[in-house]
Amino acid sequence: MRKSFLAFLFFVSGLAHGQQLSRVEINSSSQASLRSSLIEFREYLGLPNNGKVLKDIFLNLEWTKVALEKRGFLTQVITGNGVPHLFAQGKIDPNKKTILVYMQVDGQPVDSAAWNQESPYIPELMEETSGKWVPINWDFLNGKINSEWKIFARSASDSKGPAMAFLTALDILKEKGIEPSVNLKFILDFQEEISSPELAPIVAINKDLFQADGILIADGTRHFSNLPNLAFGARGIVTATIKVFGPKNNLHSGQYGNFAPNPAFQLSRLLAAMKDEDGKVLIPRFYEGVTISDADFKAMSEIPEDMVEMAHEMGFSAAEKVGRNYQEALQYPSLNIRGLKSGWTGDEVRTVIPSEALVEIDIRTVKETPNERQLALLEKFIADQGFYLIEGEEPTEEERNTFSKIALFKAKNGSEPFRADMDSDFARWLDRAMNHTFGEQYIKTRQTGGSQPMAPFINILGSPAVSVRIPNPDNNIHGPNENIRIGNYLEGIQTCLGILTQRF
Questions:
Q1: Cis link prior to 159 (omega < 30° from 0)?
Q2: Do 118 and 26 sit in the same domain of this protein?
Q3: How far apart are CA 102 and CA 44, in angstroms?
Q4: pLDDT tens, residue by residue, 194-245
Q5: What are the distances in angstroms from CA 220 to CA 118, 270, 295, 377?
Q6: What are the two backbone dihedrals, phi and then psi, of residue 318, each rounded to the nearest 5 degrees?
């Protein structure tokens, strides 16, 4: 009798201190919690979250603070230059590894008129009917939930959805009396979309507080295949504004055509010189330092993707030829025109020679091509094309009278690139968890194309960072009608359960 009782105590102790849930248990418990999770998710999505609006920051700060505290975590607001960040920590067991979970809370600004619903902050549950997404009543969640339904709202995918999936996994473990297999710390970022300007100083000042054996990033879209996905790196980002000046004022094209130079043509020739027809950047040394080993390319080629199919799905005939496949293309820095402006178009079009032409550019960088270097190369290239670069906002009278090609160059540094070892203890732990949860139906990518503010953690803490990709690839992040597929949300909960019960 005593032996049986001791055996029972041993079983309960093992359960409380981290039991690996079976795949069946992971599936059944995530399904059982789905409805209540989605209801709380709906509330979370209803909070406006523009990181440039302090009111929005504090609104989301309070919600997430309460959400973490009711799940047993101690919270602490850490402020940098007036911008708050939320830190949370659970019980620390010296016998366990410690994981720092990074969560993005803010979203891109919205143009409500461009959304197919009343407001991006009034979440809509929708189903696809005859090729169109139409709203359905949230009461439908009381019945059988269709994994193909989607929730449309700002930050549904980027990145409140992944954060809520993680919180739901914690709820399930608490309900089952199971402690996570690792110590957990959280850092919540309310200005990721504007490159987290205060994050690096905060990490540096609070190095001991953030110390961890690995960083888990609850952010990022899945690969085109929509398979569960671990990404071991991300490109950095820098942005630049180039303004080319023509005459002092807009001029009548009939009166002055063939006489006054048009800055739109000057800018067009400059931009055309930056890339060839295959999409390869022509700026000298732009790709310098990037090498792809045979082993790396072999691993990339094992990712299930068809370049022709991907191109046709996105609506164009053929991909650019920077890489031999999509994964290899992501290993190189990119140069993108994200906006052009000169004169007027549409109903406002008028017959003028515009006084200026403007382009907004973003460059995605990789570890081998540092941010500052790429910006310097771009600026030098503009000067080498014969442009005189002014220091003020407008050229002086003397500059206008002296130089035939005048431009303003403004640059902004953003997130630094990072890449983690795919064969570390941390990586193998995550790999085991994914394999346990999904079998062979998941992928590992060396680097994603987007950017994440992880460099301060990696450089200052010396900890590897890996992102868990949950949202569907057709989620429209940053644009109107952002969404998350409920099937992806469910698999996100399952992913987090698999990781949090896998012994590190």
A1: yes
A2: yes
A3: 17
A4: 989 999 999 999 999 999 999 999 999 999 999 999 999 999 999 999 999 9
A5: 26, 33, 25, 29
A6: -150, 150
Pairing of strands 124-129, 132-136: antiparallel
pLDDT in tens, 156-191: 999 999 999 999 999 999 999 999 999 999 999 999
Distance CA 138, CA 470 (A): 22
Residue type, 288: E
Task: Take residue 230 and report the two structure tokens written for it.
Answer: 């671990």
**Closest alpha carbon to 392 in 379, 408, 411:** 408
- How far is Cα of residue 405 from the mean position of the Cα atoms in its chain? 37
Residue matched to tokens 């992806």: 488
The residue with tokens 């014969």 is 386
Radius of gyration of the chain (CA): 25
Within-domain flag for 301? no
CA gap 207, 463 in Å, rounded: 11
Q: Is 330 helix (H, G, I), strand (E, B) or coil?
A: coil
In a domain, 299, yes or no: no
Answer with the one of 413, 447, 466 that is the final residue of a domain: 413
- 110-116: list long-range contacts, CB under 8 Å, 24+ apart: 110/50, 110/154, 110/480, 111/480, 114/479, 114/480, 115/152, 115/480, 115/481, 116/152, 116/480, 116/481
Could you list the residue range(s) of the whole structural domain that residue 436 is in? 16-234+418-500
Evaluate whether 183 touches 98 at the Cβ level (below 8 Å): yes
**Same domain (yes/no): 226, 276:** no
In the listed set 366, 388, 413, which residue is the last one of a domain according to the structure? 413
- Please report where in the chains the tokens 């045979």 appear, as a residue: 294
225 and 122 both lie in a single domain: yes
Number of structural domains found in the chain: 2
Same domain as 484, residue 473: yes
